């Protein structure tokens, strides 16, 4: 993969305590990678810190957004950045150390055989540390629901730790994407499956965030259920997913 260009995306909202250490660890495991921070105008100054880091390291880029517009739309902004700059791969990860950078080489090693590699909590060798019963129940339930309604065969459809082949992202019609929040994770897999992408899952251990608080709540879970249901109707109707 020496000729391939890698971009790692971090979508942030109030992640100042994690950001600098996380980017340093990313570059320990993937020194060749560029990093784009997509910040939703974090009140804690995450965006300002990202600007300082970018000024000191040309591998770091920052996209500022006007407010808290949702994880899905932030990830789309990272996709657009990757496509505009002609990266080969876009690797997305949470900005709170839930996705540890030590797994980046393993995700990249799978890409010659995949269009999307998923850092999976739910295959052999994967695990979750630090969750209570409610988080486990929500995650397992949404994953089962997505597999049944969207025809997904992958085990972990709700996690964000993934590497995408940018050329395949170019084929999708982003204007048709329904989800702005956490349901984006299931929706993008559904759309990529529809265009014949190859999926590979590699085990990761998900560790609950080091600092700050989770943004996931029951409202997001119910919104995800609704979006997945609408996508299932699209699937039955054969609604196209590619660009016109």
Short structural description:
The protein is of the alpha/beta class and 244 residues long. The protein has helices at 16-29, 46-56, 71-84, 104-110, 133-150, 166-169, 184-194, 218-237; strands at residues 6-12, 34-39, 60-64, 89-93, 116-120, 127-129, 162-165, 199-203, 205-207. Helix 7 (184-194) packs parallel to helix 8 (218-237).
Mean pLDDT comes to: 93
Biggest pleated sheet: 7 strands, mixed
| Alpha-beta content class | alpha/beta
Which oligomerization state do the chains in this entry correspond to?
Answer: single chain
Q: What is the gyration radius calculated from CA atoms?
A: 17 Å
How far is the first residue's CA from the last residue's CA? Answer: 31 Å
Helical residue percent band: 40-55%
Task: Determine the number of helices (DSSP H or I, runs of at least 4 residues).
Answer: 8
What is the element string, with H for helices and E for strands?
A: EHEHEHEHEEHEHHEEH
Strand order, sheet with most strands: 3-2-1-4-7-5-8
Low-pLDDT windows of residues: none
Give the overall form: globular
Number of strands: 9
Name the beta content range. 15-25%
Structure notes:
The chain has 244 residues and is α/β, with parallel strands linked by helices. The chain is 41% helix and 18% strand. Helix 7 packs parallel to helix 8. It is globular, with a radius of gyration of 17 Å.
